Structure formats: C-alpha cells, structure tokens
C-alpha cells in the first residue's frame, strides 16, 4: 500500500481519534436519522472548500437536500427509480469523468430501499462503487440508517468500506464510535467519543460506556426490506378492498416492473392474493421477467373470463421464479461489474461480450441463494424441469425476443449433488446467453442496448409423462391467434393456427433439418396445403425430441422408435400407418419392414375437442390483449381421448399488421416482372419500392464445397451491414437460415436482419425447397422485424419468375465490398430503379415489377 494523502474531517477531535482521513477512504456513517448525518457533513464540506477541493453532491434521496446550493459544489442528480443497473452505471461514469482526488457526498443509501425494495441491491451498489472510489483516490461520505438493514448488508458494507463510524445522539450529546478504520490503529480508537464542538472526549471508563450503550436502542436481526413488505402485504388481506389494491400495486411494481400495457393487464386480472402467491414462489428478490408474467397473466385471463370453459382442460403449474436481483448479485459478487460496465458502452458492446460470456459460465452463487436453489430442487424431486430465460424485455408489446436467450432442460436424474450442479449450470447458461451475438444484435437494432436487461428465470416442471426410458408430452407447439400464413382464399385468418409436433415443443420453435411441424388452420383443422402422399411423408415430422432418463439429456429419436412404445393412449390419435410406403419398401427388396407411421394428427383434429378449445383459447386471449397473441403449449391425452393443456407462455404476436388493401397493377406481359404468383407469402399487404436485389445463383451455389457455402453466408452478413438503411430484397435457393448448407444458405438471422424482403426459391434441379414454417423462431424473427417473406416455387402453374431481369444488370458486389469480388459468380447484387413489390392478402396475389 502506498501512503495516501491525509485529509481532515473538519472536526479536529475526530481527526485525532481516527488519525485523519486518507484519500481513497469511503466513510460510512451509521445514523438514527438524516439530521444527524447533516451534522458531520457540514464541517467535512466546509473544510474541503477551504482546501479548494472539487466537491460533488450525489443526490437521489427523497429527503431534503443535505447541502445548500453553492457555486463551488456540483449537484449531480440521479433517478434511482430506473433501477440498480442504470444507477450504478451513472455513478461509475461520474467517478470516471471527475477524475482523481474528488470529494463526494452521497445521499442516505437507505433511501434506495424505496426504489429497489432490496437490501441486497444496496449492498451490491456499495460493493461496485466503493473500490472504484478508492482506486480513483477520491473521498466519499455515505450514510445508512441504523436498525433497518439486514446483518448481511451491514457486514458486506463493513467488509468493503475503509471507515465505518457509528454516530448517536444521547441526551443532546453526540457520540462517535469507530467500528472500522482501515490501515491505522491507536489503543483508544475503538472506544466511543463524545464530540463537543471541535473536541472529542474519549469515554474509556467501563461504567460510563455501559451506561451509554444501555441507553441506545439496538434492534435484533432485521428482516430484509423485501420480506418486510411482503409480510405487511399478507396482513393487508384482512383490510378493505382499496387497501388491498394499493398494496397489490406496490408488490406488482416490485415483481412485475414499471407501468406498461402488461402492468395494466396484470392490475386488471390479479388480486393481492394472486400476487402474494407469485412472491411466495420467488427465489431471491427483484422482477420475475416477461416470460413468467406472460404465462401467469394468460392463465388468469382464461380462468377469469372463460366462464368455466377452460378450467377443466388446464394442467396446473407449479413454477418457480428466479428474481432478477440474483443476476446482478452473481455479476457483482464474482467481481465482474467493471467488465460489465465496459461492455455496456457503445465501443465495448460487442468487444467485451465474449469475455463476459465466458466468465458468466463459471461463477459462484452466494450461499444464501444456493440454499434456496437446493430447497426448490427438493420440491421438484426427480421430475424433469426446464430453466427458461425470462428477461425484463422479453414477451412485452413490441419485443418478443423469440429464441434469443437459451432455455435448458434438466432431466434431473442422479444424486442430489449431481442434480444440483446440473441446475446451477443451467442457470449459468441462461445468464451467459445474454451475451450471445444474436441477442446483442437484436437489442442494438431495437435501440435497447442501454436499457436494463435484467435476466430473471422461469423454472417449470416439464409437462409430460414417462414412456419406458423417455419423458415427453404427447403434443406440443406454438399457436397464433392470427394466421398470417394463408395459402388459399378459404383460410380464415382470424381463426388462428397451430404449429403442432409430437413430443417436446423444441421441434415447433426451431427450424429443423428435413423435419416439419404440422400446420393446423383452426378454421378447418384437417385442411393441408396441397400435396401428394410422397410430399406428405416428406413434409412431416420424422424425429421426436424427448428427455432420455438413461442419458440424462435432451435427445432426438426417430419417430418409429418412439411411436412404437406404449403411449398410454391410442397412437392413432397422432399418426397413421403408411401402408403405401411399406409396400414400396417391400418391392425394393426390404424384407423385415415394420410399417412406418406418418404423423398427421388426423384423429386428434377430428375426434377430440382439442382444435376447438385451442381456437377459443387464442380468440379469448387475443380479445383481452386487444392484439394478436402467440402462445406455447403442451397437451397430454388419456385413453378416453380427454386431455389437459399446459399453457407455457403467451405474448403479443409481432406482425407488420395487415395494412390497407393494395391495388395490384395488371401485368400485360409475364416478362415484365421479376416474379408474380398467388399465395406463399407473408407480411400482410405491402407496396414497397426496392433499391437493391441481392441474388444467390442456385447452380453456382450448388457447386461450392461446404466450407465455401458457409463463406457465402458470412458474405450475406457483410452485405446486410453494407446496405443497411436501403430497401433490399434478398433472393436465394431453398431455405434461408437453415443449419444445413445443402438445403440453402446457412445465415444467422442477424446476417439478414436489415433486409426488407427475403425470397426462397424452390429449385427442382438442386433439390432446394423453401420451408413454410411460419411459427418457428426464424419466422418469428421475420415477422417481428417486419421482413416480407415470399416462397417462389419455380415451374408451378401460377408462378412467373424471371431472374434474368436481375442478372442482366451490372453486378455491384465488387464496388460495394472490394474484398468480396471472388464471390461474384455466386452472389449478384443489382441496383434497381423503380422496382416495386405489391401484395394483397385478400386475393393472395404478390407481384414484383
């Protein structure tokens, strides 16, 4: 330790007791009230001004200002209501900007309880600010009101600060009792001292000390403020309706967040008892996040507005919520706050993310949190659980964050220690996913990069049952109250649609190689897009995601292996035997053919109430939200075809809206357009001018090696950035965003997020097929970003496609990105003047000319 410069407190006697202050000291005063704190601030500030020091007053409390306006004192107001992160970051930037040897006065830290409701977070704030002040050789005064905070908060502050002083007033006299003074010592330092003017009289006689201390009110262990409010809220259940409503809103602001459309809906549907039930299942403190709120609200709406229609069919939930404060505490207590602050800047946003991500995967959780994790796992026993991200920004109006953060299944097999470690690791994985490139880019593109992204977590029991060594629900999927994927005029958009899979719902939300979910239009559930038997086999689900108890993992198994098990229900509900295919296989000389199954859910859709129930459920939720909604669900059936639905989440569906109807110009000659067709598009009614077309040639792409195909995907990402802000149409073979290069270009969504239109061309010779998987995360992304989508089935009767209209124009790839010249055989970029896209949902026509 180097010698830090000595400074006066402004009270000579106090200087003597503690051998003066040192630059770098954080001085924390334990006081009975704010006026006592003012008594010690005045001499400290007066002395600093006499010594021509830079004095800054950090103002955030509700109490009267501690200092009067003064030309030499900088007042720095901060709005603590915006939450811990923005507050801590503002203080950090202030300290960095004001430089070394600055003198600070902070308002009373206890006031932060009114904004954050959490002792833990005050401790966290002190833990990140105090070392930085020390590093900057600054000097700061803080105060804490006695007998309000928990022992652990005070202990954390004592451990972090350099100087901790107890100040009491007894019979008009002021006494200072030093509890900690770092790096200095005297035999009488830790006795109480009577302060009279500039003098300090040490009280060493045991009788006097005992008398003094006996007159001071020392409370016992104080309950965390959060728990205290919840305790009061329980008592409010006995009070009037008005009192209950007021208490309920306070609890909601602690658990759900600030005023928003979601907050208002919760206010309308939740009672105080409902909110207390949520609080009772929270681990830690802070917000429970958007996904949890969406799930709870949707269930409540169905219960309250459904008039008994849904209740008999609903599987109850017993989820837990990991509060968002755990996320910050994890970062602070592992010593990564500095790195987090660097990452939150524009320059450091992408630069420091990988390092922070690595660290998030390896930290330790505080002991009291570990204890709560343990109790929760004991509750779930050996039931499989899923650990799902539930960030503050998720599932809100306008930001669905579909699939941006991870969810992790814990099969929950093995000894309690193994199960505990797997759970803790699952939480780390979800935390680390806040630093995934896709999530970062998503937030950056929506101007959310400096918003508080607190990560709460939803822990749900996995819905389903054991079938031999596997655990899964019979069906799962995604539902939308508006069906924007309309392939012929007779489809009623307002009836909604489902994307249905057998087994775990992971197959319904991700685009899988060669595997297709069953799209159900809820107005006529059995209607299929036009296809023959061969296509019906190809465009169906061939693999089932299940939890394997033996491997303790999420695994994908072939449909035939799983469907042949005893499903505790008639398997014909989900699949029918494909005798035609069995005959073909025998003809080809396969002798021991077991008859394969095709999943078409035909009986489920015709013989059970399931499709009607889902249609009614989506309609009701959408009506209350006053907005189209998007849900995730599972359903489990019994031998008598009765079933239970588990509603896992619900959020406002992001759509570009239908827009006004668009008059589509008449085409006199088919050669006058780039393409024209009926159906196979989504994005509503548009009339859009196109500045550039980026075209990937199917034949040239096919000839590339796998590595070169990935190279093309990265080029698309560079073009996506280079043309940001322009209206660009991207057209390519097969599926965009596939993970399999032979099926299309394997771009990440963030590599085409600035495109206005994307087209997928079916090319018979290359075996490229677009996948109309509306409802998967990739499509969610398109819909939400407002990207228009079209699938062009070249060679079909009502499809006109003239790629030469683009290819005869000059390829400007080399001018845009000189280093990409070598890709010009595969990627053709044409600047288009006057090209326009028209679409009309009612007639299902789309034209680009």
TrEMBL record:
Residue ranges of every copy of the Pyruvate phosphate dikinase AMP/ATP-binding domain listed in the record: 288-666
Listed Pfam families: PPDK_N
Transmembrane region(s): none
Organism: Desulforamulus ferrireducens
An example Gene Ontology molecular-function term: ATP binding
Keywords: Kinase, Pyruvate, Transferase
Protein name: Pyruvate kinase
Lineage top rank: taxon: Bacteria
């Amino acid at each position: 330790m180097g010698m830090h410069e000595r400074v006066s407190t402004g009270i000579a006697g106090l200087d003597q007791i503690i051998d003066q202050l040192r630059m770098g000291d954080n001085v924390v005063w334990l006081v009975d009230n704010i006026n006592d704190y003012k008594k010690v601030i005045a001499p400290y500030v007066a002395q600093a001004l006499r010594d021509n020091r830079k004095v800054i007053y950090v103002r955030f409390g509700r109490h009267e200002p501690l200092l009067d306006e003064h030309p030499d004192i900088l007042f720095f107001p901060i709005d603590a209501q915006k939450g811990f992160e923005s507050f801590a970051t503002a203080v950090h930037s202030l300290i960095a900007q004001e430089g070394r040897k600055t003198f600070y006065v902070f308002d009373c830290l206890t006031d932060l309880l009114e904004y954050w409701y959490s002792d833990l977070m005050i401790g966290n704030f002190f833990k990140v600010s105090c070392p930085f002040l020390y590093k900057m050789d600054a000097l700061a005064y803080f105060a804490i009101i006695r007998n309000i905070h928990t022992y652990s908060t005070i202990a954390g502050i004592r451990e972090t600060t350099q100087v901790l002083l107890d100040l009491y007033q007894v019979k008009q006299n002021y006494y200072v009792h030093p509890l900690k003074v770092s790096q200095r010592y005297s035999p009488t330092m830790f006795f109480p001292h009577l302060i009279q003017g500039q003098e300090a009289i040490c009280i060493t006689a045991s009788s006097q000390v005992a008398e003094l201390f006996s007159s001071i009110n020392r409370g016992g262990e104080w309950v965390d403020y959060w728990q205290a409010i919840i305790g009061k809220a329980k008592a409010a259940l006995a009070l009037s309706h008005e009192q209950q409503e007021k208490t309920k809103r306070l609890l909601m602001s602690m658990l759900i967040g600030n005023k928003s459309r979601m907050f208002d809906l919760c206010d309308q549907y939740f009672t105080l008892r409902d909110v207390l039930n949520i609080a009772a299942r929270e681990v830690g403190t802070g917000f429970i996040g958007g996904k949890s709120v969406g799930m709870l609200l949707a269930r409540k709406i169905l219960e309250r507005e459904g008039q008994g229609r849904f209740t008999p069919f609903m599987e109850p939930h017993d989820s837990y919520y990991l509060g968002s404060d755990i996320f910050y505490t994890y970062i602070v207590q592992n010593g990564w706050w500095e790195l987090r602050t660097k990452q939150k800047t524009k320059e450091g946003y992408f630069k420091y993310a990988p390092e922070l991500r690595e660290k998030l995967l390896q930290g330790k959780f505080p002991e009291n949190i570990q204890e709560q994790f343990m109790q929760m796992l004991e509750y779930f026993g050996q039931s499989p659980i899923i650990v799902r991200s539930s960030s503050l920004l998720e599932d809100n109006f306008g930001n669905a964050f579909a699939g941006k953060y991870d969810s992790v299944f814990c099969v929950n097999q093995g000894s309690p220690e193994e199960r505990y470690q797997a759970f803790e690791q699952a939480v780390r994985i979800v935390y680390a996913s806040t630093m995934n490139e896709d999530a970062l880019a998503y937030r950056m593109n929506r101007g959310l990069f400096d918003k508080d992204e607190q990560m709460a977590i939803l822990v749900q029991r996995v819905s389903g049952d054991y079938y031999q060594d596997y655990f899964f629900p019979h069906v799962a999927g995604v539902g939308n109250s508006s069906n924007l994927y309309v392939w012929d005029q007779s489809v009623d958009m307002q009836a909604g649609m489902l994307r249905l899979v057998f087994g775990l719902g992971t197959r319904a939300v991700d685009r899988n190689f060669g595997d297709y979910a069953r799209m159900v239009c809820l107005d006529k559930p059995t209607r299929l897009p036009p296809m023959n038997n061969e296509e019906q086999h190809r465009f169906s689900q061939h693999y089932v995601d299940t939890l394997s108890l033996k491997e303790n993992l999420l695994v994908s198994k072939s449909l035939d292996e799983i469907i042949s098990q005893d499903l505790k229900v008639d398997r014909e509900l989900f699949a029918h035997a494909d005798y035609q295919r069995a005959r073909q296989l025998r003809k080809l000389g396969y002798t021991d053919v077991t008859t394969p199954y095709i999943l078409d859910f035909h009986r489920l859709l015709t013989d059970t109430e399931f499709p009607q129930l889902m249609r009614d459920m989506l309609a009701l939720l959408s009506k209350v939200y006053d907005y189209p909604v998007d849900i995730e669900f599972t359903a489990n059936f019994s031998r008598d075809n009765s079933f239970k639905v588990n509603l896992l989440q619900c959020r406002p569906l992001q759509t570009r809206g239908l827009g006004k109807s668009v008059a589509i110009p008449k085409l006199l000659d088919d050669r006058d357009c780039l393409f024209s067709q009926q159906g196979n598009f989504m994005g509503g009614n548009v009339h859009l001018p196109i500045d550039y077309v980026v075209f990937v040639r199917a034949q040239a792409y096919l000839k590339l090696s796998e590595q070169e195909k990935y190279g093309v995907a990265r080029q698309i990402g560079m073009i996506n950035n280079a043309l940001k802000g322009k209206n660009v149409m991207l057209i390519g073979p097969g599926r965009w965003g596939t993970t399999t290069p032979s099926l299309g270009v394997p771009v990440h969504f963030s590599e085409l997020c600035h495109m206005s239109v994307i087209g997928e061309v079916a090319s018979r010779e290359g075996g490229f097929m677009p996948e109309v998987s509306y409802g998967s995360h990739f499509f969610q992304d398109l819909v939400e970003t407002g990207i228009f989508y079209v699938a062009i089935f070249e060679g079909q009767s009502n499809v006109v496609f003239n790629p030469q209209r683009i290819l005869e124009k000059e390829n400007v790839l080399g001018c845009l990105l000189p280093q990409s010249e070598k890709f010009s055989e595969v990627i053709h970029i044409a600047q288009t003047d006057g090209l326009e896209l028209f679409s009309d949902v009612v007639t299902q026509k789309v034209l680009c000319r």
